[in-house]
Amino acid sequence: MFFYWGKSDFTEEEGILIIGRELVLAGGETMLLARNEQRDLVTFAGSTLQEINKFRSQKYYCPDCQEEVILKAGTRVTAHFAHKNQGSCMNKGEGRYHEEGKWALYNWFIQQNVSAQLEVTISSIQQRADILLQLGEKKVAIEFQCATLPEKDVINRTMGYCNESIIPIWILGGNRMKRIGSQSLRLSSSEKVFLRVCQIKCVSPED
């Protein structure tokens, strides 16, 4: 996993307004992205309270269900959004470990000059990729998986991407790894399913 800490000025990358870089999330369920009143996709991950306060008066909305969300920020945690009422929205927020890793991966791709978008919903299949890459004519969905996922869900999500000519790449979080030696890891049955889905052939536009 790659982590890049430090501050940056207010920037815009791939249509997402970003303030800062540093990420320290609170526990519980979090959501990094929301739309502002102008319907721009924004994140305040890594921003200071002074920077955030300039935007406190605005309303923010979930990119998926369009319901209003709450901007939460403090002196010790990164700003994030939460639904007022969760309802049936597919964007239920994610845990701290997952969000930290996803944010680090996204910033690593940006630093490699790779076209990357964070938390992209593919409406045709009702799936949200943690990160969506554009590599020439090819699209690649990065799934950073930190929780146990039933095999049928892994297969269905993989096939969903393939049916849209999107190549899925699953990255298992280090929290799932059980080291049994300096160069050895033990995989449980729930991790081995990811080895099997690697055999699914996805056809890209260039193939």
Defining key terms:
disordered N terminus, 13 strands, 207 residues, 4-stranded mixed β-sheet, 29% strand, globular, alpha+beta, Trna Endonuclease, Chain: A, domain 1
Strand and helix map with partners:
Layout: E1 11-13, E2 16-18, E3 34-35, E4 41-43, H1 49-53, E5 60-61, E6 68-72, E7 80-83, H2 96-111, E8 115-122, E9 127-135, E10 138-145, H3 151-163, E11 166-172, E12 178-181, E13 184-186, H4 189-197
Parallel strand pairs: 2-4, 10-11
Antiparallel strand pairs: 1-2, 3-4, 5-6, 6-7, 8-9, 9-10, 12-13
If you had to describe this structure to a student in words, what would you say it looks like?
- There is one protein chain.
- By secondary structure, this protein is α+β, with helices and mostly antiparallel strands.
- It has 2 domains: 73 residues, no CATH class; 100 residues, Trna Endonuclease, Chain: A, domain 1 (3-Layer(aba) Sandwich), CATH 3.40.1350.10.
- It is built from 4 helices and 13 strands.
- The strands form 4 sheets. The chain has a 4-stranded mixed beta sheet, with no helix packed on it.
- Helix 3 packs parallel to helix 4.
- The N terminus is likely disordered.
End-to-end distance, in Å? 30 Å
Give the biggest sheet.
4 strands, mixed
Quickly give the CATH architecture of the largest domain. Answer: 3-Layer(aba) Sandwich
Which regions are unreliable across 5 or more consecutive residues at pLDDT < 50? 1-28
Strand content: 25-35%
What is the 3D form?
globular
Computed Rg: 18 Å
The total tally of domains equals 2
Structural category is alpha+beta
Give me the number of helical elements: 4
Helix content: 10-25%
CATH top level assignment of the largest domain = Alpha Beta
**Strand tally:** 13
What strand line-up does the widest sheet have? 1-2-4-3
Mean pLDDT, to the nearest integer, reads 76
Topology as H/E string? Answer: EEEEHEEEHEEEHEEEH
The CATH topology name of the largest domain reads Trna Endonuclease, Chain: A, domain 1
